[in-house]
């Protein structure tokens, strides 16, 4: 195997390891911030149509094993969890209100994120996804 191909293969392995390690760190950090006591999540009750906020620890306890309903249509996306509403006291679906909800391309691109998640995504993009894309271009140059 020529030295050029060996260097390219080592470079590809390093990029793959970086991608997986940074991805795991992103999901761990994102969930840690999302379920901290300082983070608040907004929900909308399906029964009484009341909007209320829960802190991260309470939210984690309520949605961890709750039945989940995700409604994806061309115009909108809804994520609903079934637990007891603190306002009316009924066990019904509660719609999670995200800070950022984007539907583009006839519903092919859907993004639902809170503020803390979008800040972490910038770091993931710069340190993980961007080097992988640039590295793939260099890898292609080494082989051809």
Note down, in words, how this protein is organized:
This protein is of the alpha+beta class. It has two domains: 1-39 and 114-144; 40-110. The chain is built from three helices and seven strands. The protein has helices at 3-34, 56-63, 115-143, and strands at residues 40-45, 51-55, 68-72, 77-84, 91-97, 100-104, 109-113. It is elongated, with a radius of gyration of 21 Å. Keywords: Membrane, Transmembrane, Transmembrane helix. The chain crosses the membrane at residues 6-28, 124-143.
Summarize the structure.
Keywords: Membrane, Transmembrane, Transmembrane helix. The chain has 144 residues and is an alpha+beta fold.
Topology:
Elements (H helix, E strand, L loop, with lengths): L2 H32 L5 E6 L5 E5 H8 L4 E5 L4 E8 L6 E7 L2 E5 L4 E5 L1 H29 L1
Keywords: Membrane, Transmembrane, Transmembrane helix
């Amino acid at each position: 195997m020529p030295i050029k191909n060996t260097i390219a293969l080592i470079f590809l392995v390093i990029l793959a390891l970086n991608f997986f390690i940074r991805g795991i760190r992103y999901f761990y950090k994102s969930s840690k911030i999302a379920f901290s006591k300082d983070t608040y999540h907004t929900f909308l009750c399906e029964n009484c149509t009341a909007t209320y906020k829960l802190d991260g620890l309470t939210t984690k306890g309520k949605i961890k094993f709750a039945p989940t309903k995700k409604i994806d249509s061309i115009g909108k996306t809804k994520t609903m969890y079934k637990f007891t509403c603190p306002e009316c006291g009924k066990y019904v679906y509660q719609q999670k209100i995200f800070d950022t909800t984007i539907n583009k391309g006839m519903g092919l691109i859907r993004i639902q994120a809170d503020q803390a998640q979008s800040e972490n995504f910038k770091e993931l993009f710069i340190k993980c996804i961007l080097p992988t894309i640039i590295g793939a271009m260099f890898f292609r140059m080494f082989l051809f």
